[in-house]
Every structure is written in structure tokens, then in C-alpha cells.
Write a structure and sequence with these properties.
75% helix; 162 residues; mainly alpha
């Protein structure tokens, strides 16, 4: 016996606020941990794009854009392109736009698309002081990896509780 569409839709609608609350709690924990690490170590663990990454990691953990390859690869790839363009072409809105365009092409071509990482070229070009190559490692790689791992642990723990 299958449930009627109305019954199934009602159950999904009741779950939505719970899922939203769990996503918000997860995003809070993710940013709080990474922010706490930044505070404790005086190192730049955070990127503005990590807030948007939390929407995917905690709100939609099963979508392709939330895979490790996408979150970590997309952030690292976009940051690398941005730092390379900044150092090769100098600051300015045209090099910034070129970096964003190249990052999009490469993320799509390499199957590492992570939409929040598309903002990394803007972050790099608008930062003061402008980042050097270290930016790719910290905050980009280490921060993205930390957020990804926190999200996976969070959802595994909730999976065991439910």
C-alpha cells in the first residue's frame, strides 16, 4: 500500500522546519569552530565564501556541489586561479573578472564546481593586503577541508541519533 501524494507531501512539509533548524545549527557549529580556530591561532582560517559553503554542506549535504571534490577542489582551484591572475596581471576589475571566468570554466571542466568558490576571485582581488600564494593553503585549503570534515561528522552523528 502506498501513501497518497497528499500524505507524503505533508510529511515532507513537517520535516522541512526540522531540516532547516539542523542545517542552521550545523552552519553555526562549522563557522564557530573555524572562527574559534582563527581566534585561537591568530591565523586567517575564514573566507567569506565559507558562509555560502555552509548552506550546501549543512543544508544540502547530499547534492553534488557538497562533495569533498567540489567543496575542497572548487575552493582551491578558484583561489589558485585568482592568486595567479593577481600576480601575473596585477589588480583591477578586468583581471578580477578574468579570474572569475577562468575559475568557472575550470571548475566545470574538472567536475569540481562549488558555487560558493566562484566568489573566491573577488575575495582575493578585493582583499587588503592582497593575498600571496600562501592564501591557497591557508585559509582556502585548510578552511574548506575543516568545514567539509565538520559537516560530515555532524551529519554522521545525527544519523546515529535518528
Amino acid at each position: 500500500m502506498t501513501a497518497s501524494p497528499g500524505v507524503h507531501a505533508g510529511a515532507a512539509a513537517r520535516r522541512r522546519p526540522v531540516q532547516a533548524l539542523l542545517a542552521g545549527i550545523g552552519a553555526f557549529i562549522g563557522i564557530a569552530v573555524v572562527g574559534g580556530l582563527a581566534h585561537a591561532t591568530a591565523l586567517p582560517w575564514l573566507l567569506g565564501s565559507f558562509g555560502a559553503s555552509c548552506v550546501l554542506l549543512f543544508g544540502y549535504p547530499d547534492v553534488p556541489f557538497a562533495r569533498a571534490r567540489n567543496v575542497i577542489g572548487g575552493h582551491v582551484l578558484a583561489a589558485t586561479v585568482a592568486v595567479a591572475c593577481l600576480h601575473l596581471l596585477g589588480p583591477g576589475w578586468i583581471p578580477m573578472a578574468l579570474a572569475a571566468g577562468i575559475a568557472v570554466v575550470l571548475m566545470i571542466a574538472s567536475d569540481t564546481t562549488h558555487p560558493p568558490a566562484g566568489s573566491n576571485p573577488l575575495i582575493v582581488f578585493l582583499a587588503t593586503p592582497q593575498p600571496d600564494w600562501q592564501f591557497i593553503l591557508m585559509p582556502t585549503l585548510i578552511g574548506a577541508l575543516t568545514l567539509y570534515l565538520l559537516a560530515r561528522v555532524y551529519w554522521r552523528l545525527l544519523g546515529k541519533i535518528r
